[in-house]
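R.M. (postdoc): so does anyone remember the format we settled on? I'll just put the structure tokens first.
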């Protein structure tokens, strides 16, 4: 990828610039916990956006996307927003840095990536973090702290791309480290690294390539359920609830709200249990918790779908250590913790069975927990 970028940069702009990269991410466990003040547990992966960048002594940004094979040129004022959606991620990052009093001047850039787009691995966060990190290094002597870089990416999604996302994706992309997962407390924003060295295991994503629910309505309904139960318990969020508290109000709330809250309370504990297990190197427990999360998302939170439940069943039948929906649900990927000696057989079986049943093949992504945003020398 670096060679190709370098060649295109030389052809388009002449000479060379500095290379930066940032990564996509997975979330091992901790789903629908962010808006409940709970924990998420992401890590950066070995799929990146990479850019070669050089200041051009003007106030114009000139950037070429190798993968989309398009060029964009824009100024740095609010009115200069480019029309191409991919360029708006970069424009947004520039604007959000400027809004915070940072410096951005014109630059030339060429970039490419291998984070699959729209597969739930957050290619957009990788793109934002790559440029946020680069512009901080290039124009701001790295004065902007890493959390703010993540927020710059998040604000870019909100203000320039129409995506009302949380902070996890950008956080993971900026803070990711090889062999480490990060437990982020979505209430306090404190975080802690945990070792992830699954020597005998691999992480394999199986992308169902389906998306069932349009619009945000099921998501908003889940949120409302959680808020109602928290309110009934006199709490700000379900973060502070436990099962005894929930049981005590069971007769006052709907069965649906009860099961939604039950999932959230149990999921918070599962993240903590997985962290303990990783500290012991106990990957069997990690896997078991992943299956429990899947069951909770499917039966209590009701955000799964037929295809994802099918993939989860196939994983179990194959003897995969852990498997669950990754992301909000209603489609997308399962994340699987698979013993290395089982990986090929599992992938073959999952592809064959899924294709037979649904008429299209799932996509397979092997991922390794790797470094996040960085300068490449
Ligand atoms: P994801 O779940 O992968 O983040 P999004 O829809 O949020 O999916 O972001 C995908 C968008 O990010 C693409 O439509 C494109 O605008 C931009 N993008 C991601 N990767 C690349 C890339 N390699 N080259 C150009 N643009 C990219
Ligand atoms: Mg995205």
């Amino acid at each position: 990828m670096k060679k190709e970028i370098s060649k295109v940069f030389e052809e388009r702009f002449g000479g060379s610039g500095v290379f930066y990269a940032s990564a996509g991410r997975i979330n091992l466990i901790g789903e629908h916990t962010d808006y409940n003040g709970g924990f998420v547990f992401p890590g950066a992966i070995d799929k990146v956006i990479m850019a070669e960048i050089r200041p051009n002594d003007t106030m114009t940004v000139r950037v070429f996307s190798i993968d989309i094979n398009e060029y964009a040129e824009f100024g740095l004022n609010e009115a200069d927003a480019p029309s191409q959606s991919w360029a708006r991620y970069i424009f947004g990052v520039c604007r959000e840095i400027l809004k915070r009093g940072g410096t951005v001047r014109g630059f030339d850039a060429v970039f490419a990536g291998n984070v699959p787009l729209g597969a739930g691995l957050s290619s957009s966060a990788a793109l934002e973090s790559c440029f946020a990190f680069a512009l901080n290094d290039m124009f701001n002597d790295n004065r902007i702290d890493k959390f703010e870089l993540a927020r710059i990416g998040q604000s870019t999604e909100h203000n320039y791309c129409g995506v009302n996302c949380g902070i996890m994706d950008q956080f993971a992309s900026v803070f990711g480290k090889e062999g480490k997962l990060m437990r982020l407390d979505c209430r306090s924003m404190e975080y802690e690294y945990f070792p992830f060295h699954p020597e005998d295991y691999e992480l394999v994503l199986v992308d169902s390539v389906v998306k069932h629910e349009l619009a945000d309505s099921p998501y908003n309904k889940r949120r409302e359920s959680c808020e109602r139960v928290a309110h009934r318990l006199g709490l700000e969020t379900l973060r502070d609830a436990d099962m005894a508290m929930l049981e005590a109000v069971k007769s006052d709330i709907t069965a649906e709200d009860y099961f939604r809250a039950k999932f959230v309370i149990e999921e918070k504990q599962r993240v903590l249990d997985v962290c303990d297990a990783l500290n012991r190197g106990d990957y069997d427990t990690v896997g078991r918790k992943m299956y429990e999360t899947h069951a909770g998302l499917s039966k209590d939170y009701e955000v799964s779908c037929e295809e994802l439940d099918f993939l989860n069943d196939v994983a179990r039948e194959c003897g995969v250590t852990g498997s669950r929906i990754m992301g909000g649900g209603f489609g997308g990927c399962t994340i699987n913790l698979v013993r290395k000696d089982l990986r090929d057989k599992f992938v073959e079986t999952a592809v064959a069975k899924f294709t037979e049943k649904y008429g299209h093949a799932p996509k397979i992504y092997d991922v390794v927990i790797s470094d996040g945003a960085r300068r490449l020398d």
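R.M.: ...and that's the designed sequence above, right after the tokens. Also worth knowing: Residues 24 and 122 are 5 Å apart (CA to CA). The chain has a mean pLDDT of 96.
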